[in-house]
Design a protein that fits this description.
- The chain has 172 residues and is an all-alpha fold.
- It has a single domain, classed as Up-down Bundle (Vanadium-containing Chloroperoxidase, domain 1), CATH 1.20.144.10.
- Helix content is 74%, strand content 0%.
- It has 8 helices and no strands.
- Helix 4 runs antiparallel to helix 8 and helix 6 packs antiparallel against helix 7.
- The longest helix has 24 residues.
- It is globular.
- The N and C termini lie far apart (39 Å).
- This is Membrane-associated phospholipid phosphatase.
């Protein structure tokens, strides 16, 4: 099993290095730190408060808050137990932009939160589904651009946020 995980880690690092070093530019240096905060806890809280008062039905706010809480708890549990060190700590020649974070990367909490919000919005307001999912995906891309997550961190964050939102949407 260790050989399999080592192979995944090497492939993950290789893909990240190619991706991270091939798209760097001044415009993205400005945009990606902004986009990444769409997956932050502060953004999630603000989104839930605004949606509670803005939308005619309060269910979007309640479902989104529930999805954020559940998916964040699951992501945190996994993160602490897997303890995967962030790529900017272990990889040399990785293009990074410094942002405040902890040391562990798997899964991406920002991507998890962004997909919890994005999928819930897509389900609740289908007319903006494309935009909400695209925005959530941009958060995942920003995490790799900033050098703080491997592709598998982002992929699992996408799955976790999506599955949690789908489950809550169809159960509540």
């Amino acid at each position: 099993m260790n050989a399999f995980l080592d192979r995944i880690q090497r492939k993950d690092a290789s893909i990240l290095m190619i991706f991270n070093n091939s798209i760097k530019c001044k415009l993205l240096d400005i945009l990606m730190p902004i986009i990444t905060y769409i997956g932050s806890a502060i953004f999630g809280i603000i989104f839930c408060i605004i949606s509670f008062f803005y939308f005619k039905t309060k269910i979007l706010s309640i479902e989104t808050a529930t999805a954020l809480i559940v998916s964040s708890l699951i992501a945190r549990f996994i993160k602490v137990h897997v303890s995967r060190i962030r790529p900017y700590i272990t990889l040399k020649n990785l293009y990074t932009r410094k942002i405040g974070i902890d040391n562990y990367s798997f899964p991406s909490g920002h991507t998890t939160a962004a997909f919890s919000i994005g999928v819930m919005l897509a389900l609740s307001i289908p007319s903006i589904a494309f935009f909400s999912i695209l925005t959530a995906a941009a958060v995942g891309v920003s995490r790799m651009y900033l050098g703080v997550h491997y592709p598998t961190d982002v992929f699992v964050g996408m799955l976790l946020g999506t599955i949690t939102s789908l489950s809550i949407y169809f159960l509540i």
